[in-house]
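Appendix B. Chain record.
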Amino acid sequence: MSLKEKILIADDSEMNQMLLEEILSDKYEYVMAKDGTEAVDILEKNDDIDLVMLDINMPKMDGFGVLEIMNLRHWISEVPVIIISSESDVDFIRRSYDLGASDYISRPFDLTVVRRRVENTLMLYVRQKRLVRLVEEQVYEREKTNNTMINILSHVIEYRNNESGQHILHVRTMTDILLRRLIEITDKYPLTETDISMIASVSALHDIGKISVPKAILNKPGKLDPEEWEIMKSHAAIGDSMLCDIGMQQSETLMNLAHEICRWHHERWDGRGYPDGLKGDEIPISAQVVAMADVYDALTSERCYKKSFDHATAIKMITNGECGAFNPLLIQCLLDVQDQLFENMHTDPRRFDYRQEAKRLSDEMLEQKELMPNNRAHSLLTFEQKKAEFFAEQCGGIQFEFDHWTNTVHLKDWNAPVDQREKSMYLTEWNDVSLLSEKDWLAMREKLKATTPERPEVKMIVQIPVNGEYRWQRLTVKSLWTTKYKNYAGVLGHFKDIQDEMVRRGEDVLEKCTEDSIAHLLKDLSRVFEVVRLVDPKTNENLELDKDGKVITTPIHCYEIWGRNEPCENCISSRSLEGKEWVTKLEMRDRQMYFVLSKHINVNGRTCTLEIASHEDEAECTRCGGDNDAPTRSSFMNFYRDALTGTYRRLYLESFQSNLESADAVAFVDVDLFKQINDTYGHPVGDEALKTIANTIRSGIRGSDTLIRYGGDEFLLIFSKIGEEVFYERLKQLRRAVQEAKLPDYPEVKLDVSLGGVYRVHPLSEAIRQADLRMYENKAKHANGNHAACR
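Structure tokens predicted for this chain:
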């Protein structure tokens, strides 16, 4: 069984279907419909559709028609709909929302907009789905108990007379069906879901008074004489009296309904019923509906005094008034649901749609309504939630929960402002969480794979961004497992800030530095880092140790290494002096990024700052090793490289966009048929395809060009100092090179990419947007056989 969300894409254009599937990638399962009629048919036959993406203009039935049917059949409350259309008329959009659409996306499609809106829409329905699943089992157990009691009562009745014990179950089912139709066609009777459930359940008591009627009268095969008929009619008042004698503390509403049904289920709309001759709406609606259900089942069942009538005949007899007069609204309800009645009367009447009741309870939870007063389990659950929140707040730090079933992550940062503490998201890729480096993410994932229900805990020391600065954290995660079957269910995690603890390990050494000890420290650090130096924080001059180990001033300023002629605006040495603590920043030199760390130290009474920096290239990370105990080593973990392809990550673009604004050209690259490769050969082969394509592109560009893995199977190329003709020719060369590339173990796999480029478009964000649009235009042209377009 697939754990992916299932999306129904209803669009008469195969191209649009293909584009949406490419945009949303293989994280979802897809079902396609080419018109509205087919979409409705799919929804009718599949109860596992999580989202509908619906075009307006389609043959046979348009999108509005689909929405109208979804409203009529109450699907719209459980299955969200996003309209996808080129129609921009405000009336179209307004009508879509009026019919229950959750969102409206206009064509041409914007990659980010489509992905985010789909994720956000699905997210809104996750909470309700989880609640339904949690409540469903409890409701099922409750209904199983109710049905057991009704079955007992049925057999008591059956023992007393020759009526089938199924009669009570049939009456209950029909009562429920008629009441639900009644509230659909009129608001005259303001019945809630709870009212309907209670009336249907209490209907089982309608003939309880027959226990006092002699068996000879109950089972007489012929017509009753007047005296016998009066005794038979007495069962209604006797049943009401029996309820009064119970002497138990019961729900007032429940007992009122029981009295109404027992006493008045033989009253008739025209006042010719018994025992009290009530007329019209003097008869409670509960008794009116049970009366009709009682008559229908009596007609369609064989009794000791009559043969059974078929369904159609029974309906005709009731509507013609042959069995007494009924409320015209109930006659209309009977005609409306007659097909449903026929189906239900020929199936097990003990069947109960407990999902509907679970949906009602979950809706009440979502709206913070009070549940049934005897729902002790819910009260205890609420108490435990409040207790857990209290202890979580005392622990502080950053906490997260991962739900395996819904693939969602919920983050809570207790250090953030109250309105920014919580964040929920779908987890599609490691960088969706934007906390761990990819290296740490992969390490944590591997450690979690090794956990078991008996050994569920993992601990790591990592760095995460906190208020713009990377800080050391102790990460503790615990895998969750179901109690009965030991199935993996999710993860709980907690980040505890240990920055002070980590740097304190080296503080004693640094604070007590002598000229002898600093020489050894600088020598050791130089084995790991590219730049290791002492700086005078007041004059910005570099300091050195002479041959005798004395600290001397040099004419070189610390900022010169970064290609500047004046002190940096964000001078790390000055900041470390002010705060007396470790300070970090990022610097650029020759289009390469460096991590810089600075700490105030005192060398024989002289104020200095120790400054160390390392190029973020993978080779440097290899030199740093994996020792988490030394902040000077792991401080420079590679946060900006994609572990799979070796290209820059999107975070690199976000961090250094200002440095890239002067770029001459931008190109978007998307891997063609990537989902097909994954589906046919598996994700490991898909990964190899991505690596091969990335390496091919990297070998075809200059060192001054930037290749970024933008997300999934998309890459971004940024070129500086390049002519327009050279740029577009370069894109064609790159595409040809990818087409010629082969996967060694899978030579039959054909690699290809779609590219879209723009030249001298600024700002960079606009260049990226336009390049993305051109890439999708070119992808469409490729599908139609034109393989030359790169502009």
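Further analysis of this model is presented in Appendix C.
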